[in-house]
TrEMBL record:
Keywords annotated in UniProt: Membrane, Transmembrane, Transmembrane helix
Transmembrane region(s): 77-97
Domain of life: Bacteria
Annotated ranges, domain Putative zinc-finger: 8-41
Protein name: Putative zinc-finger domain-containing protein
InterPro entries for the chain: Znf_put
């Protein structure tokens, strides 16, 4: 079904409300413009606008049927409008609260600490975040030497960003992230990644080139 047919069907559904004068100014303007360019819908409008004349002493079933059809079309239009509104709201809600964006690296946000047992910790000091993503201890050739490297990055959604007021005033938080397999890690880089680093050797070295070094042994 092409776009013009879809629009004609929408116009036909709205016509009863348009004739009764209960549509918004925007919808009224849309229908009027369409009727100027669509002869088929214009004929439909003229037919629906004709006054229903009931012959004397005849059954009024025709009038009842007309009113019933008009009522059903109004209900159909209201349900369709409600469904579209709900779908738009759900899409916006998902985007605002679930679509992750990488928090850019800054040495004022991220720092590395170690304890006496050589356990490595990453401290994050910044606005609320959504999640963390880490690739564990991956062997990579760096400057001719093989090193076990870990990649990590933090994410936030639009709702948690500093400019958003959806969750109230943005608050700074301090988070301590503990690295597993600390004794096997030679270097840690902050960078976003979306590939299977365990299989694609070339991608590992490419990622290192654009990553920020957080710590190395």
């Amino acid at each position: 079904m092409n776009e013009s047919n879809v629009k004609c069907e929408i116009i036909k559904d709205v016509l009863p409300l348009f004739i009764d004068g209960v549509v918004s100014l925007e919808t009224k303007s849309m229908v009027e413009n369409h009727l100027l360019n669509c002869e088929k819908c214009k004929q439909e409008y003229e037919e629906m606008s004709k006054e229903v004349v009931i012959p004397p002493n005849t059954d009024n079933s025709m009038l009842k049927q007309f009113k019933e059809n008009s009522r059903k079309k109004k209900i159909k239009f209201a349900l369709a409008a409600s469904l579209i509104t709900a779908m738009v709201f759900m899409s916006v809600y998902w985007f605002v609260f679930n679509f992750e964006r990488v928090i850019p690296y800054s040495n004022s946000l991220f720092s590395i600490e170690t304890d006496n047992n050589n356990q490595i910790y990453l401290q994050y000091s910044g606005n609320n975040y959504y999640g963390t993503h880490e690739a564990y201890s991956i062997p990579i050739d760096i400057n001719g030497a093989s090193k076990n490297v870990s990649f990590i990055y933090f994410t936030q959604t639009l709702a948690e960003s500093p400019s958003s007021k959806l969750l109230g005033k943005s608050k700074e938080t301090e988070t301590i992230y503990k690295f597993s397999e600390s004794d096997q890690i030679d270097a840690i880089y902050y960078v976003d990644f979306d590939t299977d680093l365990t299989n694609l050797v070339d991608d590992r070295e490419t990622i290192v080139e654009r990553a920020d070094l957080l710590w190395e042994r």
